[in-house]
Q: What sequence folds into this?
């Protein structure tokens, strides 16, 4: 065994013996072993969002796309190896998932303040998502902690399991149900689209061909997104894409949802009442969003002896 690998082995054993082998998540997982971990994550996220507000939406999306593929295990962060193809190459992530450099910065700063690699990349994703929402005016919640990192990734599962922007309501409900999430979770978590931008290729068909769309909104979208080309041009998912508010839902009620999957939530189906409620009641939306984020963060975590604490979020130890 080389000296580098020996050091890793010692760190991992020390890690497990020092913290105990917990098989369930709890919000105080790092309270004794590294009390500065969470404040450090908050500080780095705050600085990144201040520099570019859009990055808050990107970090939230990374956590979402991570959890929907084999659970919240930081598999989305891994680069390709001879053993697997990175989830970064999957259709929902290629040329659109971003914020990886912020996660790397957080990992570096947290390991430095803790003195050793004790915080998993999966937990960093979960906490960074929460801190991003808070930095953009949204609710806070107690993040459950103690996830460990996967040693593999799956491009095919990312293609199959991450909800598509072209899905209708029954497909969306089924996609969330597969993850143990219900209809309320679907609508509340879709409200994450109160933040961020979308590429033209994902809404082009909607603004040119769909009928359940406000004509002026469609016309405005066509100015950004030409019928041919311009696929990577960006448009906001709601009128205030850097503020956590209820405009996303108000847009849906006015038939101004940017993505087909957005407007599917308010199109004469069973989720109309929730969309209408959230459009008028920020308190109800923010409370349900926080609850659903906790629930999503609990999807199939690796705990105890399963997985590892990566030294570099991009690579298996």
A:
């Amino acid at each position: 065994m080389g000296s580098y690998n020996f050091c890793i082995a010692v760190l991992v054993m020390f890690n497990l013996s020092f913290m105990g082998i917990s098989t369930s998540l709890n919000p105080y997982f790092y309270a004794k072993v590294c009390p500065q971990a969470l404040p450090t994550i908050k500080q780095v996220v705050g600085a990144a969002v201040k520099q570019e507000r859009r990055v808050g939406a990107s970090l939230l999306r990374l956590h979402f796309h991570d959890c929907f593929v084999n659970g919240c295990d930081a598999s989305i962060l891994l680069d390709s190896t001879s053993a697997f193809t990175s989830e970064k190459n999957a259709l929902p992530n290629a040329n659109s998932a971003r914020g990886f450099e912020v996660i790397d910065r957080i990992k570096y700063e947290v390991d430095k303040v803790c003195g050793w690699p004790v915080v998993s990349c999966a937990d960093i994703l979960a906490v960074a998502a929460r801190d991003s929402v808070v930095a953009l005016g949204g609710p806070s919640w107690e993040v459950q902690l103690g996830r460990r990192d996967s040693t593999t990734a799956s491009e095919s599962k990312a293609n199959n399991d991450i909800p598509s922007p072209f899905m209708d309501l029954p497909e969306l409900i089924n996609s969330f149900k597969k993850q143990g999430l219900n209809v309320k979770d679907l609508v509340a978590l879709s409200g994450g689209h109160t933040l961020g931008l979308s590429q033209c290729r994902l809404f082009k068909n909607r603004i040119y061909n769909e009928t359940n769309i406000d004509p002026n909104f469609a016309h405005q979208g066509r100015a950004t997104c030409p019928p041919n080309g311009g696929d990577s041009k960006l448009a906001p998912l709601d009128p205030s894409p850097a503020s956590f508010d209820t405009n996303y839902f108000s847009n849906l009620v006015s038939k101004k949802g940017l993505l087909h999957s957005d407007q599917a939530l308010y199109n004469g189906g069973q989720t109309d009442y929730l969309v209408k409620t959230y459009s008028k009641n920020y308190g109800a939306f923010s409370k349900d969003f926080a609850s659903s984020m906790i629930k999503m963060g609990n999807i199939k975590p690796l705990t105890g002896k399963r997985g590892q604490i990566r030294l570099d979020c991009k690579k298996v130890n």
